[in-house]
Design goal:
Layout lengths: L10 H25 L14 H4 L1 E3 H8 L3 H9 L6 E3 L2 E5 H13 L1
Antiparallel strand pairs: 1-3, 2-3
Length: 107
């Protein structure tokens, strides 16, 4: 296809459309997978207490406890403090942190 070709095919538009369709389908599949898992069920704002919907970022948890990212990884692996993920963000429920602190105090 040289410069003289008046093809109506626009690769950039096609690729953009394909990426949009792919993102939508992936989102649908993720929501289907997560809907059956208790930790990912959607909670309506009216039914949730503030502690159910409050989160801390990975950085905030690291600062709060004075630990490194690798410590948080080990805690997650061991089930001590497991994060929730929203896209590529790693978030920790404040209620999970409070539960962890209560367990630690009990011994």
């Amino acid at each position: 296809m040289g410069k003289g070709n008046n093809s109506s095919f626009n690769c950039e538009d096609w690729l953009s459309g394909m990426l949009e369709a792919l993102a939508e389908r992936v989102s649908e599949l993720v929501m289907q997978k997560m809907s059956g898992r208790e930790e990912f069920q959607v909670v309506s704002q009216t039914d949730a207490s503030p502690s159910d919907i409050d989160f801390l970022s990975k950085k905030e948890v690291m600062e709060k406890f004075g630990v490194s990212a690798s410590t948080l990884w080990h805690w997650s692996k061991d089930g001590y403090l497991v994060p929730s993920k929203l896209g590529n963000k790693v978030l920790y429920r404040k209620s999970d942190i409070e539960d962890m602190l209560r367990r630690k105090r009990k011994g």
